[in-house]
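Format notes (please read before filing issues)

Several people have asked whether sequences and structure tokens are stored in separate files. They are not. Every record keeps both together, in the order shown below: the sequence lines, then the token lines. Line labels are part of the format and must not be stripped during preprocessing.
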Amino acid sequence: MNKDHLTTQAKRHAKLTLTLNISALSKAVILLAIVGIVLYTVLFSTYPAVHDFFHELRHSLMMIPCH
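Then the structure lines:
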């Protein structure tokens, strides 16, 4: 590869990185939302397939009644 090609690729990569950059606060909000949805689904779902799979976990936590 020649030097001009590498320079062009580096500039293209830098431009793409700048356009895809999101703040740490946005990343934290997205992460907390995903974790919240997963925990709610695991702990409070009444859908039989999910409920039956996590049934023992729900009882062992002794916080979430399921009967």
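For reference, the curators noted about this record: DSSP finds four helices and no strands in the chain. Residues 22-67 form one domain.
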